[in-house]
Amino acid sequence: MRLSMRPDLHRRRLLLLLAASGLSTLPLAGRTLAQQSQPAERPEQGSGTGLKVIVVGAGMAGLSAAAALVEAGAEVVVIEARDRIGGRIFSDRSLGVPVEHGANFIHGFNDNPVAKLATETGARPFFVDQEQWQLFQPGGMEPEDFETDDIFDDMDAIADKATEEADGDKALSLLDVIEVIDPALVKEPIGNWALTDTYEGELAAPLDEISALHFDAGDLYDGPDAVLRDGYDTLPKALAKGLDVRLGEAVGSIKHSSDGVSVETAKGTFTADHCIVTVPLGVLKAGAITFDPPLPQPHQKAIAAIGFGRLAKVSIAFDEAFWPKEPHFLGYAGETRGRFADMLNLVPIHGVPVLTMVASGDYVEKVEAMDEAALRSDVAAVLTDMFGDKAAAPKTIVRHMWSSDPFALGAYSFPAVGAEPADHDVLAGSAGPRLLLAGEHTSAAYFGTVHGALESGERAAAAILAAHKSAK
Ligand SMILES: Cc1cc2nc3c(=O)[nH]c(=O)nc-3n(C[C@H](O)[C@H](O)[C@H](O)COP(=O)(O)OP(=O)(O)OC[C@H]3O[C@@H](n4cnc5c(N)ncnc54)[C@H](O)[C@@H]3O)c2cc1C
């Protein structure tokens, strides 16, 4: 969740209030934290409990679960389908600096366990400033301040009235209620930009798929959002130190009973006392892993109900920056909702002429269908619309297509029409005497985020340790 280039409007307002009241203790944009000590050394694998655990998936959930279990003395094998760890944290250094195909920000740095991990590993955060953005309309026009103020007021009105307007009707989408509350919004470019920035980009789903009842479900950590200058993947790498991770092994089936678990990949069979499955919701929806016995009915219903969204991020290097260098974010209020409405400017972060452009909502499918030449001309057309003759041709474009990635099949979970926040809690509960799920989709408070994934892994590890202790 919350890929949006600006933190959501509530957090933005909160930060403004804090700043105005002088209460803000937040670090300033661009300032680095002092290097802190490295995470404590882990004990040797299996140094005492006699407990064996298989963790499926080496994203943040799987690695945090495995690290906590090994810390407690368990013997753990992590089985990962890809030839790399990190899952939906995927830093690409081919443009000379880390660009993020997956998670980009630590959302809310204060008290966030991911921020704590970043600090422990000596990561260098760049704090993005949500006041540092500039919005362009077709023809390079910039809206007047009063126009953006008005549009934010409209967004606040939707946030305040949507649930009331839905009146308990689970079948209504956010689009349904917006068409009643403020039908003009979806007809004007700046309205569509704000809707993309506030909802479609944040929740990785089109307005007509987002629940009008639960669009604002979940909690936020306070504080600024941060980009890690050495790459987000430094965090999974830190967690994975000393763990037994088997790469390139896709799990196809899992047998589980009160006696233990047996996990099959194309290369062989692994057995253990317990198993934690952290594959993304998209993979569970597709039934890519066979469970014997099948997952409990409430789990299956929750897997079907919770939405798994889509986003298209494209990072583009140019010979030089022809756009304003200072803003952390650029916005494009074009004619088509979701068409590269938000952009992260890497000039202030890394000092390089690179933009990360994000498409959301219905436009994701279009972007994913574009070959390299079509994508090039589409981003060039958007930039020409924003900057006219000044816009230069892209030099290099990199991207990752999450929706067709067989080990993700989408971006992250969101409150779909018909889903309930409690569906995440169902997924966090026992899936069998020796089987648990973890991953961002199992967090009712923090679904769709790296911190949700990390906390879900720690929760699953604690549950197994408690079960093992009480069985002794
Ligand atoms: C484009 C995008 C932008 C995002 N932006 C942000 C952001 O700015 N901030 C934020 O907090 N979050 C963001 N997120 C969400 C965040 O990346 C995820 O919530 C988090 O990384 C999920 O971690 P996880 O461990 O639950 O799942 P994953 O990281 O997906 O890990 C699951 C692992 O399971 C593996 N796997 C799949 N199938 C099998 C199989 N059959 N056998 C074995 N292994 C398998 C996968 O390869 C993967 O490594 C973003 C996500 C995307 C896609």
Discrete helix count: 14
CATH fold name of the largest domain: Polyamine Oxidase, Chain A, domain 2
Shape: globular
Say how many strands there are: 21
Rg, nearest Å: 22 Å
Going across the major beta sheet, what is the strand order?
6-16-17-18-15-19
SS-derived structural category: alpha/beta
* Global mean pLDDT: 91
Helix content: 25-40%
Distance between the termini: 40 Å
* Main β sheet profile: 6 strands, mixed
CATH architecture of the largest domain: Alpha-Beta Complex
Poorly predicted sequence stretches spanning 5 or more consecutive residues: 1-39
How many domains would you count in the coordinates? 2
Q: What does this entry look like structurally?
A:
This protein is α/β, with parallel strands linked by helices and about 475 residues long. Helix content is about 35%, strand content about 20%. The protein folds into 2 domains: about 30-90 and about 235-305 and about 415-470, FAD/NAD(P)-binding domain, CATH 3.50.50.60; about 90-105 and about 120-215 and about 310-405, Alpha-Beta Complex (Polyamine Oxidase, Chain A, domain 2), CATH 3.90.660.10. Helix 2 packs parallel to helix 14 and helix 4 packs across helix 5 (about 175-180). The strands form 6 sheets. It has a 6-stranded mixed β-sheet with strand order 6-16-17-18-15-19. The chain has 14 helices and 21 strands. The radius of gyration is 22 Å and the shape is globular. A hairpin with a 2-residue loop joins strand 10 and strand 11 (about 270). Bound molecules: flavin-adenine dinucleotide (FAD). The site of flavin-adenine dinucleotide (FAD) has 41 residues, from helix 2 and helix 14.
